[in-house]
Amino acid sequence: MELEARSTQGLSHQRITHLDTIRGVAVMGILIMNSIAFYLGSVAYFDISVPDNASSLDWFIAIMGEVFADQKFMALFSLLFGASILLFCERAEAKGYSPTKLSLWRNFLLFLIGSFHAMLWEGDVLTVYAMCAPILLICRKFSPTLLISLGCIFYLTPVVTNWYLVSTVDSSGFQMIWDNSYLENYSAEIESIGLGMMYDVYARALGMMFIGMGLYSNGKLIHIGSAHKNLSRSITFVIVGISLSSIGLGWTYLNDFSTAAIIQGNIANTIGTIPLALGYVGLLIWWHKRTKSLLINRVQALGKTALSNYLGQTIVCLSLAAVIPQAWLSRSTVLLLILAIWWVQLFVSEQWLKRYKFGPMEYFWRCMTYRRLMPFIAHQK
Predict the structure, then answer these.
(1) How far is 188 from 192, CA to CA, in rounded Å?
(2) What confidence score (pLDDT) does residue 319 get?
(3) Confidence label for 379 from pLDDT (cuts 50, 70 and 90)
């Protein structure tokens, strides 16, 4: 296990470009679900029947988002965050820094960045990630098998807590939290539901981070094996994940999208997220290995500037939501906005990195981490 855990050390000084590809897709995918909350409201984020879908296209977009996007891209982002903790510690140690102290400082800065982001939008995940970092650092010497096992356990514990809550409390409390009417109807049950929802977010994030650490430690995220074998395994994972998410959505539909049915259906979606996210990782690595194109170069550039793009998505979406009449918005029009934002971010990210070494927020974060100015202009010595 010790030799296995060290299998990535020799590559830690190199840029692992396929991780940039995965990170770029993850940031793009996160926008799919976040945009629903930005433009259509929190209830529509949880309940795909809200607002009333006026066309078959709206329903199709809602179903595709629930099966292929909901939870999946945050899972990808979390998995990469866990891997990046180990990668950062290896590189910090190679430079003569204390990896634990420097990583704690780096994630404290991330917490501050996330706190400012949360002032703009309550859906921020950066603070969640920063708060998980100390736990990851404590556990980073664990064996890959133990890390992956812990990750699966943590990720699936919300299945138990959500099942318990929906079985014991009035499910209307979930609806009150979704539409922000809980302050006028506050009760002990609503408090329990709120705590359960907070635990859900942290447990799923931490679980995928542990899985990411385990996959990095055993080299699965770094050393790409047989393309055919990886592709076959990834397709199997995707099929399993889609099947489980579809079962959950089917249950919700058969029960007329009642609040309790949404929570119950989401349990199957949560279980399906692990294999589907792992399938996405495999397919993206295969795509990265097999393809050399303008699109993949732009996706990598977006991945290298992920923090700037994640924060930029919030600013752009909030600005557009403030000026676009609500009557114009539907799942179809939101998809058009997502496609437009993707195009702009892909283009701008590539052009930016032709001139500069880092994204603007990445540069700020890096300088503050090492407490000195870094070269910023591309090719600057």
Answers:
(1) 6
(2) 97
(3) low
